[in-house]
């Protein structure tokens, strides 16, 4: 199936695909705002279907572009959130320059591990590189808890623990760039790619660089992430009501409420009118009922309308 749009080269090696809008072309790029969408582990252009549906429903002043970074497809296996945030910041700056930094609004929408990249950009190594008009975190789940749960249910908990311990040992020895073996490695086998010891530990260790969304993180840990959320950047959480990567023991709404409380405690804004649990939705919504996709799209459109009008309904504490 052909997907009309524009391919932007935002640096020498990386591109972003902007979906065509059903609306008539604007007379000036400066009147256009942009959602920069970033997928998760193994994702690339068009691997998740709902961005194309969002493109058809956005108001005339908005576009959505899918961002490729070095970690797209299987590149995550040797990457890091620091690299991802640096490349995502370069893409933000490209669209700001293209459409006028003082006029255009940029919203970053992360999906799955793309949510970690958005967090890294806003509160981690990428903070202060760019200023965003808003952030949407869709399907932000704990890789550590998800893979632990999958390994446990498949009788591979011992093998999983051994791989994590080996990765942590290699990182401690300064050998984080060493590639872990794929055979007997349940995570590498599930993802279809061997990973460096560093990325294995980052994704799967308690307190690893990717460990933003785990339900067992302490209040102190959340203070160092959500507690540093920039006040000028409204935030919207979207989580599938039936997301299979959240363990059954975790209450999804409690997760969202906990993160929201920390952001608001420090003066940030969370849109909990358009944010929240998406009824009938799983993780990436591929092959989900049309009603679930439509609800996700409605929430995204509602959030960006609020960003444009600077009237986000979420309250500060």
TrEMBL record:
InterPro entries (UniProt xref): AB_hydrolase_fold, SidJ
Gene3D superfamilies for the chain: alpha/beta hydrolase (3.40.50.1820)
SUPFAM superfamilies xrefs: alpha/beta-Hydrolases (SSF53474)
Annotated organism of origin: Pleomassaria siparia CBS 279.74
Protein name: DUF1749-domain-containing protein
Pfam family, one: DUF1749
């Amino acid at each position: 199936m052909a997907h009309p749009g524009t391919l932007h080269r935002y640096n020498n090696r990386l591109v972003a695909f902007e979906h065509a809008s059903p609306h008539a072309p604007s007379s000036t790029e400066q009147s256009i705002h942009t959602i920069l969408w970033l997928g998760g582990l193994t994702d690339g252009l068009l691997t998740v279907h709902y961005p194309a549906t969002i493109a058809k429903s956005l108001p005339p002043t908005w576009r959505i572009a899918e961002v490729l970074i070095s970690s797209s497809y299987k590149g995550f296996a040797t990457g890091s959130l620091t690299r991802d945030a640096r490349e995502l910041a370069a893409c933000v700056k490209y669209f700001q320059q293209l459409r006028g930094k003082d006029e255009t609004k940029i919203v970053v929408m992360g999906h799955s591990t793309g949510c970690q990249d958005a967090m890294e950009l806003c509160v981690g190594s990428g903070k202060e590189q760019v200023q965003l008009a808003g952030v949407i975190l869709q399907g932000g789940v704990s890789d550590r808890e998800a893979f632990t749960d999958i390994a446990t249910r498949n009788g591979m908990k011992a093998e999983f623990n051994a791989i994590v311990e080996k990765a942590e040992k290699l990182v401690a020895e300064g050998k984080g760039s060493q590639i872990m073996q794929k055979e007997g490695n349940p995570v590498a086998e599930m993802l279809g790619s061997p990973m460096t010891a560093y990325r294995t530990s980052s994704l799967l260790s308690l307190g690893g660089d990717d460990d933003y969304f785990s339900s067992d993180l302490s209040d102190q840990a959340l203070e160092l992430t959500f507690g540093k959320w920039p006040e000028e950047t409204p935030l919207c959480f979207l989580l599938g009501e039936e997301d299979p990567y959240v363990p059954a023991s975790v209450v999804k709404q409690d997760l969202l409420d906990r993160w929201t409380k920390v952001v608001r405690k420090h003066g940030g804004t969370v849109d909990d009118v358009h944010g929240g649990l998406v009824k009938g939705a799983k993780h990436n919504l591929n092959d989900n009922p049309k009603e679930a996709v439509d609800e996700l799209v409605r929430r995204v459109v509602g959030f960006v309308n609020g960003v444009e009008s600077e009237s986000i309904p979420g309250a500060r504490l």
